[in-house]
Write a structure and sequence with these properties.
- This protein is an all-alpha fold.
- It contains 2 helices and no strands.
- Helix 1 packs antiparallel against helix 2.
- The longest helix has about 40 residues.
- The model has no long low-confidence stretch (mean pLDDT about 80).
């Protein structure tokens, strides 16, 4: 059981480090994208607007899926720990 608790805390630590780094990377990506394509964006280029909206949607969807998977795995881990605790005759 100690291994499961250690794994749970390691996953939480990894998540705490990786999520801000991923969000910082996404913000940096958007800044660079807008610097390079900003003149096209204000010229009314429809493809650039569609691409911008698509990228924003995909980033938000990806973050949502990552959060869902993280909390699902943590819930599974908690369930395992609870089952082991209830069967352990300590």
């Amino acid at each position: 059981m100690d291994e499961l608790e250690m794994m749970r805390s390691q996953m939480a630590g990894q998540f705490i480090i990786e999520l801000p780094l991923t969000l910082a990377w996404a913000i940096w990506f958007f800044v660079e994208f807008f610097e390079m394509g900003f003149s096209k964006l204000w010229q009314g280029d429809e493809i650039t607007w569609i691409l911008t909206i698509f990228i924003a949607f995909m980033v938000l969807t990806t973050v949502a899926v990552i959060l869902w998977l993280y909390f699902k795995s943590q819930n599974t881990n908690d369930t395992l720990i609870t089952c082991i605790d209830s069967e352990d005759p300590k």
